[in-house]
Amino acid sequence: MPPLLSSCPKVGQRAPFAFSLLRLPTMVWYHSTPIVWWCRDNVTYMIDMRRDSRDSICCDVASNATDLPRSSPLSILSNKPPTTTTRHYVTVTRDLFLHKVSAFWCCVNQFVAGSFVMSTTALLSWTTTVVRGFRSVTASSRGALSSTCRAMSTTAEPSAASSTSTTTNAFLQQDDLPKFAKLDPSELTPAVETLLKQLQQDFAQLEKELQDKVSSNDGDIDFDDVVPTVERMQFPLGYTWGVAGHLNGVQNGPILREQYEANQPKIVQAMSAFSQSQALYQALQTVQQKLEADHDASTDFQVMQKRRAVENSLRGMTLGGVGLQGADKERFNEIKMRLAALSTSFSNNVLDETKAFALTIDDPAIVQGVPDSAKAMWANAHLMHLQAEKGADDIPKTMDPNVGPWRITGDMPSYIAVMSHLPDRNVRQKVYMHKIQTASEVNPEKNNVPAIYEILQLKQEMATMLGFENYAALSLASKMAPSVEAVTELTDLIAAKAIPAAKAELEEITAFAKEKGGEEYAKLDKLEPWDITYWSERLKESKFDLTEEETRPYFALPAVLDGMFSLVERIFNIQVTAADGETEVWNDDVRFFKVTDAASGKHIASFYLDPYSRPADKRGGAWMDVCIGKSSAVNRDVAVAYLTCNGSPPVGDTPSLMTFREVETLFHEFGHGLQHMLTEATVGDVAGINGVEWDAVELPSQFMENWCYDKPTVYGFAKHYKTGEPMPEKMFQKLCDQKTYGAGMMSCRQLYFGQLDMELHSKYDPKSAEKEGGETIWDVQKRVASKYIPHSMPLPEDRFLCSFQHIFAGGYAAGYYSYKWAEVMSADAFAAFEEAGLDDEEKVKQVGKTFRETVLSLGGGVPPMEVFKRFRGREPSPDALLRHTGLA
């Protein structure tokens, strides 16, 4: 969530930061807006300078004194009579502000002797008046002004009451991008406690003021009194907790994990106070009524943003227990706290089990025929293990990938390489069995089975308390899909096409293995699960005369990035440029980029890219997360994203050579990033991916994957990393021909995951497992598998659910179907480009412009069905998806 300037001390309190040392004014720049601070007699004063509607510079002044003396220079400058109001304005012309700074500062210093009171709510309102138009002030003028302020502050004497303890806490430095190099995990708790205390004080005062207004029936509550105010209150804590959560996924360590787990209940409790506030709920209802009365059926985007934000907030509060009282409310909050703890524990167990697994191979015969890239990855993993165990001085600098040893780890790139390319069945079986039994009863200390049952029971209890039949119904209350039945209907529609195709595919793979695999395979009735991927790859190589190893040299990560950026420049009219070194990062592999609107030249967004697998401290998978969201409430108009992948790392001087699937994954996550970064919404709660229904949020990401089969796009990056030669025409055509290979099995697998998730959260009673002969979660898994993957039933030992983080440690509970739901829309959206003609550059640009102005710009400010209809002119159809997957 977008942060607020967390170091803003509340008026009437001692400045908790270094500003309390200053008896004369000093200046800080908060996103191009100057904030002036000074302190006298343990009173903090502040002025925020901004341009008003008359194109002058206005200053809001605040302190804890009681009045503004008539003789005050600021009173004279303002040409307003002194009052005891909580707010005063000083209008100063740009000329006076920029060129007569010294004289103006003399006025400020004389003013310190007398001021007026400002309430917390007024301070929050004060913050929202920051006007971005002040950015037109030149950099040189800013520098001169800041220098003058510093010069005037050199005689300041330290206050005995000052404290610098928080100035060094990087979790509290929120005026810009996170200070990753300075973050100390042990300082998370002090930061959270500081921010929580302030949040609770501010919210208590806001509740009182809102309650007074609602009770008086004066109707004087509008949108700006509520939504932006709450947003500003929550952002300092949201910013800090967001950074901590990000690091917990990409730089997990014992101290951070301990601190994160210790503070999570406090965060849940604090957010529950908002979601269950009667005063806030009633105020939002008043705002909603006023918006409907004043702007009935308005299609103005600014109005729609506000309506959606209020609508989402009211729904979220309803689902958050605002209607509960007494013991029910207490129990509901206990459930939320417990679910948060279980989710974190579930994820940690999976990470620990993945990190702990390793299999070292010394015999070169076992890896015979394995691609060089896989052997290099495993040899490098062994080298890194030795470095960590013995120290860099005691081991060689490099490890020969053709000699070994080779260390197979539990992370996804290593696992996929084993399943796809390692001929040895015994090793494949060991690696496969570990994967499907990760965090299960096989290791009692990291067993997620009890957590699964408890999570399911608690979610069912929560749903019942809110009046829903089951948790799936609760989940769908905030999604596009109208019902469980509608989800099942779409699932079965696709399954009717996919299941026959999957059966035929597996039969072909099995026949090929029996023919080519020798006596060992010839006598098998069926392939084991650890055989299927291996022989599927061999069949694909045979059918298309193309191996993954042949394509890797053409997919060097730096070139793929350049090509991907060229694509979005072409279709969305934006430019992406490297900005490495301009901000701190959490790992040397992390890169930083800036996004500029090509038409205006304006810097509109930035993003971090963490591309490689690090099994020791980084969780598996790929994801996009919000670093900073766009929001006018906190004066943030440059959205910042985290893009995280777990691709194959570079080996020696060889860059990361990607598999084609890794290329698709990168495009997928960048699609999420584009929706976050290119939003035109300015209400933080509905900007970017915020407020977008969960089953629509995958539209841009899956849409971007389609461009990996577009010839101009691919030839923009598919160049041999050594020679620079473009990918041969025949190789590209073979890649395209492979697109629908295995589509039946892949579709069935995704449908199986989605329906297993839905079944567990809708029809299954987790308490039944406690009864003798009752249905277990493994029975449910088997039952759903028999319907959607009858050709490839899971083994009795399969404990896949124990590592199904999407639904037990992520946001996809009763929502995994969203991938297929959104895939229908994404395929239909890409079909618009196909219909325009992918070779017609001008038409592609025009369709891209419309896609940017709708899907990427509107964020959660407009309902997703309306967004799609604005782009496509109609509701989505599954026809394009079936055609793209070869299942039509």
Secondary structure blueprint with pairings:
Blueprint lengths: L25 E5 L2 E8 L2 E9 L5 E6 L10 H6 L10 E4 L1 H6 L1 H11 L8 H9 L10 H14 L35 H29 L6 H28 L3 H22 L2 H17 L6 H19 L6 H31 L1 E4 L10 H19 L15 E4 L2 H10 L3 H12 L12 H17 L5 H6 L7 H33 L2 H4 L6 H16 L3 H4 L5 H16 L1 E5 L12 E7 L5 E10 L10 E6 L10 E9 L12 H18 L21 H7 L5 H4 L14 H9 L5 H20 L14 H12 L16 H4 L9 H19 L4 H16 L7 H9 L6 H6 L4
Parallel strand pairs: 10-12
Antiparallel strand pairs: 1-2, 2-3, 3-4, 4-5, 6-7, 8-9, 9-10, 11-12
List its traits:
888 residues; alpha+beta; 32 helices; globular; disordered N terminus; zinc; metal-binding
Q: How does this model look, in words?
A:
The protein contains 32 helices and 12 strands. A hairpin with a 2-residue loop joins strand 1 (26-30) and strand 2. The longest helix is centred in the middle third of the chain and has 33 residues, at 484-516. Helix 23 (699-705) packs across helix 29 (818-836). Among the domains are: 18-162, no CATH class; 180-323, Glutathione S-transferase Yfyf (Class Pi), Chain A, domain 2, CATH 1.20.1050; 357-438, no CATH class. The protein has 888 residues and is α+β, with helices and mostly antiparallel strands.
